[in-house]
Structures are given as structure tokens and as C-alpha cells.
């Protein structure tokens, strides 16, 4: 089964429908958005940008791509793929938006699994960082790529079956707007033991925070329908992999100078992965 191209987009300026005309998407009010040569569309209006180059930088995206490509977070990708496969048994057609897709490692892994299950997929990676979306398109040119914000997703109401949000910044109201009745939000967030060995090297006092609070999303017809703990130990990480982890995870980089110096000496040490996958479903009855 092929991955399908997006056919519907909304203009970020007036929310009118955009139509594709060759390499340009246009609305009835003549706002135009060109398809970049890598095949993504930038729908982030200048007035909505808080910085000239919002989101993760080119360096952060490259570090995350190299770290994830080494396969050490594969248990997370496998668990996400299994979770999504379980959600779409009855679908022959499925649309997935990865909101804050980064360089597309998880979206691509999930799609590879679903395509094995003969699902016809429209899969879209959206990120506020153009470097992320560019890298996602290079990873898999068949994924649709949108530069936009989770705060204003340029997709029509009730157009998606699943919104994936891994280690990201969920905007539940907006996710719910674009989901179809019976749709699902699939989230992956770090648990208290995630990277504990690294965090205990770089911080004087290590916090074991619970995963992000999602209670504000659990209202009306939206309920937590599944919750999966993914716990694993990585193979020993090289000095280069520790450096990539620090670059791709900016809060680790904000550690004290002593902390960073200790981290810079780390090598040949495994670390713990502790991730919670949660599924928030519309119309779910426990
Ligand atoms: C920690 S990374 C996670 C990336 C990817 N989901 C993953 O798990 O590898 C967070 C991502 O969210 C993006 N981001 C930050 N603010 C955003 C927003 N308002 N809308 C969409 N993406 C955003 C960043 O550019 C970055 O790529
Ligand atoms: Zn317009």
C-alpha cells in the first residue's frame, strides 16, 4: 500500500481552503504557499513566528536524527507502532498527523508497521522547525511535511484519525478539532527514571517527575483508553551518543558547568529508558 499525499490544507491567514496548483497552494483570497524543493509546505505566517528560526535548530535536529538512527530508542518506536496498529484494525484507510514530528523517526517507524498491515495511509509530519520537517522529508519523501505550529494546525476540522505527539507540546483543543469522531491522541512522554544515569551525573539533585499531566484533555467524550509503560536499558552509549543526547535535549544542556563537564566525560555506559505511552480516545467507554 502506498503512502498518500495530503489533499486538504487550510490557509493559516484566513482559514480558507487551500487548493494545490502545481507547486503552489492557494486560497480564494490569493494567499500562496510554495512547495519547497524537499517537498514540504511552510504554512507558518511570519506574524505568528516568535523568532526567525523557531523550534529545534539545525544542530539539534541533526543530533536527534543521528542518535535515533543508532537504534537505541527502538523499544519506544516498536511500542508506538504496536499501539497504533491496535487502534486501526478496523480501518483500511487512516490519516495520521505527527504534531511536533522532529526529524520523523517515530512517524516513519509507525508507518512502516502499518503499511505491513495493509493500511492505506496519509501520514503527515508537522513541526514548527523547518529543519525538522526538511529532515523528515529526507528520511521518507512519501511522508507529507508541514511547517506550522501545534497551536494552529492548517488542517480541516475532523480530518484525521490519529494525532501522534511524542516528547512534544500538546495543544489538546487543536488536536481534538482536527480529529474525526472516534479519533485518538497518542502521546509518549518521559517517565521518572528516563535517562536517570545521565541526569544524576549532570544535576546536583535529580528530580523524578511524573509524566506530563494530561487531565485537562480528559473531558467531555475524551477518555484515557490505554497506558503503556516502556522500560528498557540501552546498550552502552559512546561519548558521541552522550553528546548527541545533550544537544538534542536542551534542558540537559542547561545544567551547570560542572555538570556539563561530568557529562562530557561519559562513555561506554548504558542508560535507562522510561517512557509512558498514553492513548486518549474520543467516545471511549471503559
Ligand atoms: C523534543 S522534540 C521531539 C521531536 C519528535 N516528536 C521526537 O520524539 O523525536 C520537540 C519538537 O517539537 C517542535 N516544536 C516546538 N514547539 C512547537 C509548536 N508550537 N508546534 C509544533 N512543533 C513544535 C520542536 O521543533 C521539536 O522538533
Ligand atoms: Zn488565505
UniProtKB/TrEMBL annotation:
Pfam families: Methyltransf_11, Zn_ribbon_RlmA. One of its GO terms (molecular function) is methyltransferase activity. Residues 10-51 form the 23S rRNA (guanine(745)-N(1))-methyltransferase N-terminal domain. Keywords: Methyltransferase, Transferase. InterPro entries: Methyltransf_11 (IPR013216), Methyltransf_Superfamily (IPR050508), RlmA_N (IPR048647), rRNA_m1G-MeTrfase_A_prd (IPR016718), SAM-dependent_MTases_sf (IPR029063). Residues 97-187 form the Methyltransferase type domain. GO terms for biological process: methylation. PANTHER family: 23S RRNA (GUANINE(745)-N(1))-METHYLTRANSFERASE, METHYLTRANSFERASE. This is Methyltransferase domain-containing protein. It comes from Zhongshania marina. The lineage of its organism: Bacteria, Pseudomonadati, Pseudomonadota, Gammaproteobacteria, Cellvibrionales.
